Amino acid sequence: MTQKITLRPWQEKAVETIAQALCVPHSLVAVNACVGSGKTFVPFEAIVNFINNHKDDKTFHTFVCPRIKLCKQQAKEAEKLFKDRGLNVAVKIWNSDSDDVGQRYVNGNEFWDSTDKHILCVICDESLWGISVLKNTDGSKKEKSRYERFVQMLKNNETYKRINGIIAYDEAHNYKTKQTFMFGEKKCLGVK
What's the CA gap between 16 and 51, in Å, rounded? Predict the structure, then answer.
């Protein structure tokens, strides 16, 4: 059964702004609001709208959290919202505490289970931007950015006709050293 949730006026405006931004590839929207105001609901609602606009397509979305515990909490919230909206969305958690993504590699196959039409990946920021230390056969060590794997996964989505939709950063103020990395020099569309 689909449950209708009433949005606050500012949330409606934020969701509308995100929908407009999605008409332009690689658009950015920053949502700033106080704790407990419903910021997290806004990108989830935008994902619902994106999926409803791409029902016949396979889609992929990312929700980045600063802590593993928060990843689990946000994944549960997302699953509940999608279920309430009557949407079948696979919610995967990607971090050191999960086997949802595990050690999958992209080797000429789709990264995701192809039976999942719509996917939300909740990823811990360290799993996105951290460094993995790899051991070479001679015993030496090599550092590799985990972000490269994420970018490869996005490219793999395109290869297998999965639309890369929304990337949301929960508590983005925690990523001060990553702001330029996340947004480049682009200007964000403001919600007033």
Answer: 15
Q: Which pairs with CB-CB distance under 8 Å and at least 24 residues apart come from 154-159?
A: 154/60, 156/106, 156/110, 156/111, 157/60, 157/110, 157/111, 157/112, 159/110
In 3-state terms, what secondary structure has residue 74? helix
10 Å CB burial of residue 46 (0-12, 13-18, 19+) is: buried
Q: 10 Å Cβ neighbour count for 174?
A: 15
pLDDT digits (tens, 9 = 90+) for 60-102: 999 998 888 889 999 999 999 999 999 999 999 988 777 777 5
pLDDT tens string 144-189: 888 888 888 888 899 999 999 988 888 766 666 666 666 666 554 4
At 36, the amino acid letter reads: G
Q: What are phi and psi of 131, to 5 degrees?
A: -115, 135
* Nearest residue to 119 (alpha-carbon basis) of 84, 85, 162: 162
